[in-house]
Structures are given as structure tokens and as C-alpha cells.
Write a structure and sequence with these properties.
The chain has 115 residues and is mainly beta. The chain has one domain (4-108). The chain has no helices and nine strands. The chain has strands spanning 4-12, 16-20, 30-31, 43-45, 50-53, 62-70, 79-83, 93-98, 103-108. The strands form two sheets. It has a five-stranded mixed sheet, with no helix packed on it. A four-stranded mixed sheet has the order 3-5-2-7, with no helix packed on it. Strand 8 and strand 9 (103-108) form a beta hairpin. It starts with a strand and ends in a 7-residue tail after the last strand. It is a multi-pass membrane protein. Keywords: Glycoprotein, Membrane, Signal, Transmembrane, Transmembrane helix. Belongs to the SID1 family.
Length: 115
């Protein structure tokens, strides 16, 4: 069977983003020296098991593109860790994870209504 190429694009506005690929041994993340890709390219290539940090505001966004391949019928998952030092509820950090057929988004800080 032909391998199914999956392209995961993380469109994130995080101050800290940590993605851990499944099936890899747990090890402390390392600081990435630089993202791959041209500086003008909004979606820069990123590596799993690396910590990416930066500062965002109302007019900027950080886009990290993670690629992985899975076999048909194989169950895979990606874990994303996002942390923001801001507690401003008027301007939350919006995190969007886009995969081949799915989109997941949330804001940081995350508010639970009615709890």
C-alpha cells in the first residue's frame, strides 16, 4: 500500500509551542536555533521535539509547519503544548491546528463558561 502523506500546518500565535510526535521517546525539548525556510515565507518548516518561542501582537502571527507520514490504517496523534504569559482576556492568543481533513482551534487563556 502507498503511504499517505499528511501535512500538518500549525497556525499558531503562541509564546511557546511544543509539539511531540507519537512513538518517540520522551526527552527534554531543546531550543531550536532557527526555523527552516525563507524569512518571507509565512509557513516556516518546524521540527518535532523542539521548543519555539516568540512574541506576538495584534498585527503579527507565527505559523509553524510540521510534516509527518503515516501508513493507511495507522493511528497517529500529535501533542501540542501552548503557553502564554499574558492573562489579558480581551486579547487572547488564538491557536489553530490544521490537518488534511480537520481543523482544531482554541484560545489561551482558555475560559470555561458555567464551571
Amino acid at each position: 500500500m502507498r503511504a499517505c502523506q499528511r501535512h500538518t500546518l500549525l497556525c499558531a500565535l503562541p509564546w511557546l509551542l511544543w509539539a511531540v510526535a507519537p512513538g518517540r521517546p520522551a526527552k527534554p525539548p531543546t531550543q531550536s536555533a532557527a526555523l527552516r525556510g525563507a524569512p518571507s515565507d509565512p509557513a516556516r518548516g518546524a521540527d518535532f521535539n523542539h521548543v519555539y518561542s516568540g512574541v506576538v501582537n495584534l498585527s503579527t502571527e507565527n505559523i509553524y509547519s510540521f510534516n509527518y507520514t503515516s501508513q493507511p490504517g495507522q493511528v497517529t496523534a500529535v501533542r501540542v503544548y501552548v503557553n502564554s504569559s499574558s492573562e489579558n482576556l480581551n486579547y487572547p492568543v488564538l491557536v489553530v491546528v490544521r490537518q488534511q481533513k480537520e481543523v482544531l482551534s482554541w484560545q489561551v487563556p482558555l475560559l470555561f463558561q458555567g464551571l
